[in-house]
Specification:
Blueprint: H1 3-6, H2 11-16, E1 22-26, H3 28-31, E2 41-45, H4 49-61, E3 65-68, E4 75-76, E5 85-88, E6 99-102, E7 106-110, H5 115-123, E8 127-128, H6 140-146, E9 149-150, E10 153-154, E11 159-166, E12 173-177, E13 195-203, E14 205-206, H7 209-223, E15 231-234, H8 245-251, E16 258-259, E17 262-264, E18 271-274, H9 283-301, E19 310-311, E20 324-330, H10 336-352, E21 356-362, H11 369-374, E22 377-380, H12 385-388, H13 391-398, H14 408-415, H15 417-426, E23 434-437, E24 452-456, E25 466-468, H16 471-481, E26 488-492, E27 497-504, E28 507-508, E29 512-515, H17 523-528, E30 535-537, H18 545-562, E31 567-574, E32 581-587, H19 597-604, H20 609-623
Parallel strand pairs: 2-5, 3-5, 4-19, 20-21, 20-22
Antiparallel strand pairs: 1-2, 6-7, 7-13, 8-14, 9-10, 11-12, 11-13, 15-18, 16-17, 17-18, 23-26, 24-25, 24-26, 27-28, 27-29, 27-31, 29-30, 31-32
Helix pairs in contact: 10-20, 13-14
């Protein structure tokens, strides 16, 4: 598009907007706190609801998308024209900047008001409780879109309802209760990018006005110590409560980094400030600096930070890091309930790490629009069945969708215990002698002696497993195992200590020693504990360091030869008496509940669960589709 075409305001806007409202081309330097971006953009500033509705309708009817600008406090502008976007800013000096006291400690506020204005207005009427938020910049509409927060307090704590214009071809003015908004940590999925917020109702608590004003002053004084200069505030989300982005950036040596007119503040490594107004601020300089910060943290901590700022030109960030994750959970296997719990735990951890997450209880093999069009990465947290046998992975591969975990061929091999044992034999990985049975009437295989382990060849979570110590046990074992399929795996019993090793992106986590009351690690030992509690010792209590390294090496070798990717758990028996080991099997989608083993080993290695999940998502994103 030529510059002359760009700078021509569509006539529909001029005809559809009344005299008090403004339609013009604007500069990022004037309308954003960061001032990044050298290209002009089309800005509409409606002063009433009629003009706001008309602006949205005209934009979408002419094939454009509306981008709410607010006060521009976390916006990175563009160096190139964005003709497909119309920016809407609700002026403070309009009906969108009004404040009104309501009964019951409530205040009606226009979306163009700032949090500080509302909190001061509340204090003047002996209401308060939200002083932790008074230093957050920007307008109320933006605060809701981000569910802004500080010091453990969130905007949603005070919200009663919100009104807004739906961003669509036929816009509607809708009202939402706080329960309808689905607000989460720094996330407002119903609002952000879908609704132009126009008005909110907030509820505050009775306070002493004088004391509240003192608290406001103290918070503003504290906020006044923030880095000086034009900025967009904190650039990155905190990956986890105990891993603030500023600490990671400082540890990665980012303070003082500079690209063009932007530099990382020496006072706070999560702030980028503009070095004076005499030098133009470009989107290119800012995004190059952001990319270098991400690169340094990735190299030092194996974590990819998520930008908290919003980029007008999405091409600037589309290859930097994923932000939208779809967690698949449930499935139809015997492990459905465990999968639902694991999926929720993964989703919660990713939200804590700052991602936008959706959960989907998948009960049939089908690609959905969310998988293909919305998600940057899909994470199948599906134990057993088509979650681990490679079928869902093949579906995602065929659709070209990025996903966490091993590809379809590796999943099918790892799920098939017989194929896994043949692979281990081929590559010299120690495992127990075995036989395969296909009929429940078969007798103990020739050459094998009791005790033996009998288990299904394609199940997980210890379903269908039996320790056979007597001929009487054999018949019961056969009846049980063939309920789970048409092949049974019979293995020599290895007496020793049960251990497991998690592999994350090609690196072995610390060994976990598993101690239980029964003779084998069965479903009861794993989940129900009717026979007694199970101990998971990390680091191990009874295994010499040399033996632990041997276990890790065998697990890593299985990871490599099986073709596994990103995450795998390998179960290994170990004998302290003769320093021998016996690899049992791998699990391509290990449990991720509060009691699961890979998260436990990660914590022992100093990796929080949100951090571990972030590592896996970013590894999958770097790899691309299989």
């Amino acid at each position: 598009m030529s510059s002359s075409e760009l700078l021509e305001i569509p006539g529909e806007f001029l005809n559809g907007i009344s005299g008090g409202s403004a339609v013009h081309f604007a500069s990022w330097a004037r309308y954003t706190t960061l001032g990044a971006g050298s290209a002009p953009f089309l800005l509409v500033e409606p002063v009433n609801m009629r003009d706001a509705l008309n602006a949205v309708r005209i934009a979408y009817s002419s094939g454009k998308t509306v981008f709410p600008l607010g006060k521009g406090t976390n916006i990175v502008g563009s160096d190139v024209p964005v003709p497909g976007l119309v920016f809407l800013k609700l002026p403070s000096a309009s009906e969108f900047g009004r404040l009104e006291l309501l009964p019951g400690g409530m205040i009606r506020a226009g979306a163009a008001c700032s949090l500080l204005e509302v909190i001061r207005f509340a204090a003047g009427h002996a209401l308060g409780g939200a002083t932790a938020l008074c230093g957050i910049p920007g307008a109320l509409g933006g605060a809701l879109a981000m569910n802004a927060g500080a010091m453990g307090s969130s905007f949603s704590d005070f919200l009663v309802s919100a009104k807004g214009i739906t961003l669509e071809a036929v816009p509607q003015l809708k009202e939402y209760s706080v329960g309808e908004l689905g607000l989460a940590y720094r996330s407002s999925p119903v609002i952000r990018g879908k609704v132009l917020v126009t008005e909110l109702v907030l509820r505050f608590s009775p306070v002493d006005p004088a004391e509240e004003k003192e608290r406001i002053a103290a918070e503003l004084a504290r906020r006044g110590k923030a880095p000086k200069g034009r900025s967009a505030g904190s650039v990155f989300r905190n990956p986890a409560p105990d891993r603030p982005a500023g600490m990671l950036l400082e540890g990665a040596g980012c303070k003082g980094l500079r690209r063009g007119s932007y530099m990382v503040s020496e006072a706070h490594a999560n702030w980028i400030v503009k070095a004076g107004d005499d030098v133009p601020g470009t989107e290119s300089d800012f995004t190059r600096l952001v990319a270098e910060m991400i690169r340094r943290v990735q190299l030092k901590y194996n974590m990819a930070l998520q930008p908290e700022v919003r980029f007008v030109n999405m091409v600037s960030t589309e290859k930097k890091a994923p932000s939208k994750i779809l967690v698949l959970k449930g499935g139809v296997s015997s492990e459905r309930e465990v999968s639902l719990e694991s999926g929720k735990a993964v989703a919660d951890a990713l939200r804590e790490a700052g991602y936008e997450v959706r959960e989907y209880d998948i009960q049939e093999l089908a690609v959905t629009p969310e998988m293909k069009e919305w998600a940057d990465v899909v994470w199948p947290v599906l134990h057993g069945g088509y979650g681990e046998d490679g079928r869902i992975q093949k579906m995602l591969e065929d659709a070209g969708i990025r996903f966490v975990g091993s590809g379809s061929a590796a999943c099918a091999l790892i799920m098939d215990k017989v194929a896994s044992k043949k692979l281990m034999d081929l590559h010299g990985i120690p495992n127990a002698g075995y036989a395969v049975l296909t009929e429940p009437s078969e007798t103990i295989p020739e050459g094998m002696k009791l005790p033996l382990i009998v288990k299904p060849s394609n199940e997980g979570s210890t379903f269908g497993i039996t320790l056979v110590e007597t001929p009487e046990d054999w018949k019961k074992a056969m009846e049980l195992v063939f309920r789970y399929g048409n092949r049974a795996l019979v293995e020599e019993f290895f007496k020793g200590v049960e251990t497991t090793v998690g592999i994350i992106d090609g690196k072995a986590l610390p060994v976990i020693e598993i101690r239980y009351e029964g003779k084998i690690y069965d479903y009861d030992a794993k989940y129900t504990h009717a026979s007694g509690d199970t101990e998971y010792l990390c680091p191990p209590r009874n295994l010499p360091e040399e033996l632990q390294k041997k276990i890790q090496a065998a697990a890593l070798k299985f990871y490599e030869v099986s073709g596994a990717e990103e995450i795998l758990r390998v179960d290994v028996m170990a004998s302290v008496e003769d320093n021998s080991i016996c690899v049992l099997e791998g699990n391509s989608i290990p449990g991720c509940t509060a009691n699961s083993l890979v998260p436990k080993a990660g914590r022992a290695a100093g990796i929080s669960f949100p951090e571990l999940c972030s590592m896996l998502v970013n590894a999958a994103y770097r790899r691309g589709s299989h």
